[in-house]
Structures are given as structure tokens and as C-alpha cells.
Fold:
Amino acid sequence: MRGAKEEPRTKAQMLAEIERLRGRLDEAEQTLEAIRGGDIDALVLSGPQGDRVFSLTGAERIYRVIVETMNEAAVMVDPDGTILFCNQRLCAWIGIPMEKAVGQNVSILVAPPQDAPLSRLLAKARTGSVQCRLTLRAANGDAVSAQLAASPLVGEDGPGVCLVISDLTELETSASSIRVLREHQQALEASEARYRALVEMAPDAIVVHQNERFVYANPAARQLFDAASTDLLLGRHILDVAHPDEHPAIRDQVQTVMSEKTTPLWATRLLRLDGQEVPAEMAATLTEWQGQPAVQAIIRDITARKRAEAALETARAEAVNEKH
Structure:
């Protein structure tokens, strides 16, 4: 059976069809141009199974963005060491633009004494991944300590070597600073140990008080105040071990230390924990205790001196009486 006879189209219909086809052609050409220019990342196409998304951005572009933006220098060389590709970090390192870097030998990265180690690294990298530390040469001539990681790379143009170079200058500077700080810390700890040993062995009483309460007392201080243990003194107010008549003078001395950093030696009267009076000489200076201002005092028990002075005075008086 013959099909129905096709109706002839009018001129207007034919012109309309031509315009429709021309519009679709323009749209297709614009799409292709957008794809070539990278303005389109993906296409959505309709089919029997529904809409499907076709990505136009492959892994190569993603990897290129990563390589171009990373902080390490990246370079690909052929078996002879000729640079085939490098990122901007390497160009900044050697101080020449990419178009001039490509085609140069990778030995431009190092000073002459480092040529041989670099050549050995490239030779080993043709059969497997390898790492080493070399001293490279920056654009301004400075020597730069760097870690090089090399691995074999097989591309369309034949075998080659991929190098990733990490600048170790900042890391080594930090390591050096840490080492210096550690040495200073060790020196401070050794100095503190010596100071503590001297304080612990000192014949004079040494105390530290903060907000007028004892926070430290050496063995001589415990003996002076007749305290069997440090716990009997720590936390106690300084006026608890001072004669009531000396309280105003001691408070004045504390204020002097806090404002003038130190005080001259002065005589005072203290009290043992059992209430016995102790003649003493004291000098104080400003210090720190756990990061806060504190007063350190050195106290000398002058009981023996006072007895000797009294005995001498008695002997003189007796001598005068005998003459008369």
C-alpha cells in the first residue's frame, strides 16, 4: 500500500525551516567554541535512559591546577636532564620564566659541586622512586637546602623523571630555633639547680613570701623558726614570726622592696614558732614566684653575736670596777 502523498510546502514554510536549521547550527558552533575555550565543564544530554551528564574536565586539568598552585617546585626532565615541564614555583626559584626554563638542563638548579649528586639521583630515579637532600642555588645566588623526591615517568614523548623539590630553609630555621631554645632551657635548668643547691645549703635563712605569706623556706629558715617541716611555715603570714613591735617596720620594708626592688640590711626581732624571740638581721629583694612578684629575704640569726657583745660589755664593766 502506498503511503499518503506528501503535501507540498510553501515558500514561507521552507524559509522558516531554513532559519530553524541555521539557528541550531549557530547554537552548535557556539557550544563547540565554549568547549574549546574551557567555558563549559560538562554537558547534559537527553537520551532513552534519561538525562546524562558528560564531564569535559578531566583529571589532567585537575592535576595541572594542583601542580601549578602547590608550594613545592615540580619539574619533569628527559633522560639527559633537559627540562620538559616545570611549574611556576620552580620558575620563581631559578628566576627565569617558564618559556626559558623549558629546554634548559636541570643542572641550573645546583652549584657545580652538586652536579654529581644530582646526576646520580636522576640515574636512580629511572628505575624507581628515590629521595635525597641537596643544596640548590636560588635566583639571587643564595644556597638553599632542599629535599628532592624523584620518580620515573613514562609519557607520550618517552621516559623521563619527575622531580618534586621542597625548600627546607624554613624547616631548618625552625629546627635551629628549637635547638637554641632547648639549649637555653637546659642552661636555665642547670642554673636553677645550682641556685637551688646553694640556697638549700646556705647557712643563712632564705625565705620567699608572696602577698606577705611564705611560699618557700630553706632548711636554715626552718631551723631559725624552729619548724620541724616546711609545711609549718608555708602559707603562714610573715607577721606571725615577727615581734609585734617590729610589725610597722617590716611592712615598711615590704613596701620599699615592691617599689625600689631591694632594701638595705636592717636589724629586727623575730619569733620562733614556740614564741621565743630571735634577734636577726635581714635584707630583702624583689623576685618572682610562679610568674608573680614576690619578696625574697635573707635572714641571719645574730643571737650568738648579741651574747658575745653582751659578754664583752660585761667584761669591760668589770674591768672598770676593778680599777676603782
In short: The radius of gyration is 45 Å.
